[in-house]
């Protein structure tokens, strides 16, 4: 609050009056300027503190992301192993457990993702003091981080459902054909959730490339065997037909020139 005091002595002349008014105005301007300067410095301090908190939090999230990428590879290997084991049991219904080509493996790691610094920045309205382009980048990054963190909430119930048989009998060779078919379906559902989680990992890397290592398209295609048909030279003709149905930016590269069928029309 600004206090303005009256002079101790009366103003005797117009000159003295104007000097007195000028003194008051200058004093007010100085006080207002100092108050605004203090406010600006306070805002700068708030923004600097927030940026440092976000930097530390994003570093933690990057480490969690790297752990999740490692977990993705472990989980992929485990699920493909489970498919192999279950398929073997289906094909060899009388095989004992010790003759199986592996054991069933179920695990998942949530990941230590956090958004507390970002939520604090939003709730305290510090984001209103920051450049909006910077806020937009943080918003996109944290939106993807939230999606990655939530992906665990989808995959974990699917894993629990798939491994539920073990509560009653840990030996999968004791499952009936119907139970085996059901278990295969459960395992495939885990794979669906697993690759859906991979998609959000890819999106986070695209928004902020400092989240590394990235899952590449080729890597995912190799796991899903997507590229097998695309690279098969014997299917070049079929690929060309498929390309005729796709937009230009979705064309599949043809590994060799496609031979056109010879015309049956008589030569002239």
Structural class: mainly alpha
The percent of residues in helical segments reads 55-70%
The number of distinct structural domains comes to 1
Cα-atom radius of gyration: 34 Å
Largest sheet: none
Q: How many strands?
A: 0
Mean pLDDT: 83
Strand and helix map with partners:
Elements: H1 14-91, H2 116-123, H3 132-162, H4 177-207, H5 217-224, H6 226-230, H7 236-243
Helix pairs in contact: 1-2, 1-4, 3-4
Explain what the structure shows.
The chain is an all-alpha fold. The protein has one domain (14-215). Helices cover 63% and strands 0% of the residues. The chain is built from seven helices and no strands. Helix 1 packs antiparallel against helix 4. The protein is elongated. The chain starts with 13 loop residues before the first helix and ends in a 25-residue tail after the last helix.
Quick take:
By secondary structure, the protein is an all-alpha fold.
Relevant terms:
268 residues, elongated
């Amino acid at each position: 609050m600004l206090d303005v005091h009256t002079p101790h002595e009366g103003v005797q002349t117009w000159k003295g009056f104007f000097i007195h008014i000028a003194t008051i105005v200058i004093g007010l301007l100085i006080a207002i300027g100092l108050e605004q300067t203090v406010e600006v410095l306070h805002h700068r301090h708030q923004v600097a503190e927030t940026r440092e908190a976000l930097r530390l939090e994003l570093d933690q999230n990057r480490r969690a992301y790297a752990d999740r990428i490692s977990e993705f590879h472990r989980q992929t290997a485990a699920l493909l192993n489970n498919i192999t084991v279950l398929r073997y049991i289906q094909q060899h219904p009388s095989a004992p457990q010790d003759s199986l080509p592996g054991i069933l493996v179920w695990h998942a790691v949530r990941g230590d993702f956090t958004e507390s610094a970002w939520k604090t920045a939003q709730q305290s309205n510090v984001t209103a003091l920051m450049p909006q382009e910077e806020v937009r980048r943080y918003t996109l990054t944290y939106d993807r981080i939230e999606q990655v963190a939530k992906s665990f909430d989808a995959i974990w119930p699917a894993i629990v459902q798939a491994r539920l048989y073990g509560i009653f009998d840990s030996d999968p060779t004791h499952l009936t054909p119907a139970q085996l078919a059901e278990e295969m379906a459960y395992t495939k559902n885990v794979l669906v959730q697993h690759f859906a989680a991979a998609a959000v990992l890819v999106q986070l890397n695209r928004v902020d490339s400092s989240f590394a290592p990235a899952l590449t398209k080729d890597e995912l295609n190799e796991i899903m065997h997507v590229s097998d048909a695309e690279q098969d030279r014997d299917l070049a003709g079929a690929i060309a037909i498929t390309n005729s149905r796709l937009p230009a930016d979705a064309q599949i590269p043809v590994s060799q020139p496609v031979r056109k069928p010879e015309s049956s029309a008589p030569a002239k």
